[in-house]
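During the reporting period, our protein records have gained a structure token line. A sample record is set out beneath this paragraph:
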Amino acid sequence: MKRGLTVLACLCAVVGAQYFAISKWGIRHESLDLFDAARKRPVSVDVAVRRDYEWKADAGYWKLPVAIISNGNTVKNTEYSFLANVFAARGYMVVSIQQDNPGDPPLVTKPGMPYVGRLNVYKKGEANILFAVDQLKKRDPNADFDHLTLVGHSNGGDTAMYFARQHPDLTKKVVTLDNLRVPFVLSDKMKILSFRSEDPHFQTDPGVLPTPAQAKADNIDIVHTKYQHTWMSDRGPEKAKEAIQAALDAFLGDSTVSDLQPVDTSNLVGFNKGMPLP
């Protein structure tokens, strides 16, 4: 086990250094202040794309896959660069959407209501994603907006999962970081990766996570961590971010997360047999 932890630590360090170098020299960032006239709503977007892959797409050699990142409540869309760097390094166009604006009503919790009273928040996020995709399609015809990877942290993870439930035809993959409210999509046509915190202040609602049998049947990887809920953004410690990057990189490379560090998870109830991160 100690050897496995050492290997994982080395892998995390290598991956972290790789993405730092690529982000510094090879990834182009662009901030777009879009406006949805139909809803009278500003939609801020940060676009990240690796320059060499963008040139290949512009030359007609391939289409850029697209990842949509939705921020957690009170976290900015630009505070997920550690995730955006992994996707961009693998050739994705990364679209980070600011899902909440100043003046939006605060998040509420209403037990007994669908998604504890947050359905309208997820519908707003769905509309933001559809609007941003529609605008970027016109500007970037060499990106594949028909097979999206939806990504999100906390409330943004629930937004990503809600979008996937409403638009399975547009969704290829889903990556969530501690989404708590919206049940996982169960479909063997959609790959899902989810990082879970060990944080007593943020508890997952009943029925959100799949059973072990459902997870195995439907390509769902659950990653247990010792991290706090709020660590799953750029605000988190480097060790946590590097471990998440390594697991995400393996997932995008069509490996199962358990390939990184197999352990005995028989005492963990309600989860797929994925890899606990240190």
Notes: The first helix runs from residue 2 to 25. DSSP finds seven helices and eight strands in the chain.
